[in-house]
TrEMBL record, chains A, B:
The protein's role, per its UniProt record: Catalyzes the first step in the biosynthesis of NAD from nicotinic acid, the ATP-dependent synthesis of beta-nicotinate D-ribonucleotide from nicotinate and 5-phospho-D-ribose 1-phosphate.
Keyword Mitochondrion listed: no
The Quinolinate phosphoribosyl transferase C-terminal domain, residue ranges: 121-289
Higher taxonomy: Bacteria, Bacillati, Actinomycetota, Actinomycetes, Micrococcales
UniProt pathway annotation: Cofactor biosynthesis; NAD(+) biosynthesis; nicotinate D-ribonucleotide from nicotinate: step 1/1
SUPFAM superfamilies attached to this UniProt entry: Nicotinate/Quinolinate PRTase C-terminal domain-like, Nicotinate/Quinolinate PRTase N-terminal domain-like
Post-translational changes noted in the entry: Transiently phosphorylated on a His residue during the reaction cycle. Phosphorylation strongly increases the affinity for substrates and increases the rate of nicotinate D-ribonucleotide production. Dephosphorylation regenerates the low-affinity form of the enzyme, leading to product release.
Protein name stated in the entry: Nicotinate phosphoribosyltransferase
Coiled coil: none
Family: Belongs to the NAPRTase family.
Amino acid sequence: MVQAALRSGAAHRRCVFEVFARRLPEGRRYGVVAGTGRVLEGLEKFRFGDAELGFLSDRGVLDEQTLDYLADYRFSGTVHGYAEGEVYLPHSPILRVEASFAQACVLETFVLSVLNHDSAIASAASRMVMAADGRPCVEMGSRRTNEGSAVAAARAAAVAGFSATSNLEAGRRFGIPTLGTAAHAFTLLHDSEEEAFAAQVEAFGPGTTLLVDTYDVETAVRSAVKIAGPKLGAVRLDSGDLVEQAHSVRALLDSLGNRETRIIVSSDLDEHAIARLAAAPVDSYGVGTRLVTGSGAPTASMVYKLVERDDDAGNPVAVAKASTGKTSHGGAKQVLRSIDDHGRAEAEVIASVGSPEEVGYMGRALQVPLVIDGVVQPGFTGAEGVQRAQQRHQESVAELPADAHRLSAGEPVIPTVFL
Amino acid sequence: MVQAALRSGAAHRRCVFEVFARRLPEGRRYGVVAGTGRVLEGLEKFRFGDAELGFLSDRGVLDEQTLDYLADYRFSGTVHGYAEGEVYLPHSPILRVEASFAQACVLETFVLSVLNHDSAIASAASRMVMAADGRPCVEMGSRRTNEGSAVAAARAAAVAGFSATSNLEAGRRFGIPTLGTAAHAFTLLHDSEEEAFAAQVEAFGPGTTLLVDTYDVETAVRSAVKIAGPKLGAVRLDSGDLVEQAHSVRALLDSLGNRETRIIVSSDLDEHAIARLAAAPVDSYGVGTRLVTGSGAPTASMVYKLVERDDDAGNPVAVAKASTGKTSHGGAKQVLRSIDDHGRAEAEVIASVGSPEEVGYMGRALQVPLVIDGVVQPGFTGAEGVQRAQQRHQESVAELPADAHRLSAGEPVIPTVFL
């Protein structure tokens, strides 16, 4: 597209692209914007290196003019968007990219890849955190998703309120708290479960978490208490009927005097399984597969659409395709989350950029400047970005109507209104 | 685990870990091993750098002894496994890692991440290729999955028989054929559809693929033929009722004399949608979201389990946990795909390594040496690895009973037998 547009001259037309999802995943009440910080980190480094250009040239994919254009590529446009962690609804324009066609066009795949993946994970994670109702959730799914996705998934889960991750690389890159427990292999490696527990306590002290379901749970809990003593930090259950086991292990720990020893459960948890454990004496949840695969919705299905571009005279023209079932709304947009007198969100109000602000709705403007003339604005990237996104997410969810807390399938929790 | 095992001395015990899936995704007849080449490429580079070690040290995650161990980490063990592209069934031991506990343990997350992701994509892709019944399938899903997953997904799709990908990085790294078409934005960028088509034909010649559903399909097809002439390569349909549109567009193209112009369809295709298009005059399929998300099964749910380890005297001991619903089979295993007199696969036969070969079954041994004493064996990595995997996959699928071709939900196509 860039090559053809460089030839036709249209490559330098000022364009506005918007990122949005036409719908939420089946039955979901709201979505969560995540990945914005990663998009901005990637944008600052977005370059075509010698290896890439050499390949494109050797394979004859692109002509010289286009290769030269890409060799000098530096994004110099402006991006507005939802702050990371914000709740989104169908058609919410969560990102608005203003740049020449060529500059904005080459970003499409990267921008969508990041936002589609990270928002899918955060949207699932938010429901799990809600179901956990204050008990900590720990991300433990790295092994069930692509190795790069694993780091991004840990980050997205943190944005949506997960307390920690077992992914150390996510800790290193994004400052997310990390923790881990032993696997069954560690117990099986030793000649007996007692030896394994003793080795772990020797290495990490009694505050460690011992995995107690490799052989017989009751025997393991008794051994764990005998070896680690009253200060045993936690035991982990990873199989079987977790509700029943949590009750019996709690009773056993209490009877042995280990009232402070916590119980961590894992094993194919999702938001529904977590909700079913609400009345069980569980202290925290380790969540893996269902988190990193978006709990049934592994992509947010966001699209990156041209909504406005200049004509030859430099005047903006709203554009939209007419394809069956995939219509979009032309023109650059602004958004207000309308808030009622009780502080509750009541609608996602979308209007043209530049339309009068007095439209009969009161609320919060959702789009903030993320990049101005190629310069990434401070506060959105790195560990600071993740912390701010966590905060934003908490506030944004707190503002939603009570129906947002329902895990059952339903309609978006507030309507999207086009003015 | 490594730190505690270094303290207890068990870290250096020789261990055997096996990778397998307890079950196929709901209703699937078979799975496809993919990612083996990427595992081997990663294994050769598996190091802990200063940045990683510094983080682990600064955060107090590990002690000095463990940091020193990781700083010197080089895998020196031996790995056998299914050749990439091979079909697998429940409990197929697709990888067997023999090394010290510490060496094998730290590989778990990386190995599973790669195999779980890539095998999930290849398993879905294989069904799509089967449904397409000879018509080429093109991978176009990069934007709907994490940016790293996108490259891996393109590779996995190629292993399972996809003809090309729109992901240029996958072309560069793995030698996969690449192709692309224009998006709706390219048409909308120009003052008219004709201008857009003319720009594309000017840049790429008449053999290009023009997207004809931005406004009105019939008008667009007529413009495309007028501008590109009788040598127009293809038109792409990306919305609406594809069966109906393919028929009417084919008739229109033929009536205009463009009998050689091909029709490419995309728009939320999966194996079922492809099967429904079997009787429509379609020449190739562009598959995106449903491919890169595994068509409902985004992870292969493989696990990495310790099955054997030495005791203090250096004698191998088979080990297995007894956790409810998650039992595994102890001891290192070998596998035979039993083949009947007609050349058809009839069972996945799993036996202990070292058990007599004369077991009453005839067939193919499925495990090949991938790494010997730390040295990656030739032929499995890079572009060569992908090509060989494609070939292996074709042969392996051809050998399956006819039920393998059914897209409806069912049992694994051949049983898994433990001797």
